[in-house]
Amino acid sequence: MLIEINTAQPPAIDWGATGAKEIAQNVYHLLNMMKYEVAYDRTLGVRPDFQDAPLQEAISLYTAQVYAVISEREPRATVQEVTFTGIVEEGNLSFKVVIEI
Length: 101
What we know:
Elements: E1 2-6, H1 19-31, H2 55-73, E2 78-87, E3 93-100
Antiparallel strand pairs: 1-3, 2-3
């Protein structure tokens, strides 16, 4: 099953999610969380080193982080595609990530 995740559109949190919905929710949160910001699990999320990089380098760094963090932290999902979709109003990069469950 393929699921498309837009990093700029937060889903409503479903505390009782199971199956594919749980995995997709986990992936969304992993992709929008920076390492060192979770008190009891400092290695959770993507490295923040892409934030101050030039745009093309930032896109490449974030894309590499997507593959790494999902394979490490949510092995039930496999990344199929990562596409840069633009910069949202707050200045954050927006991506479309397609995963297979």
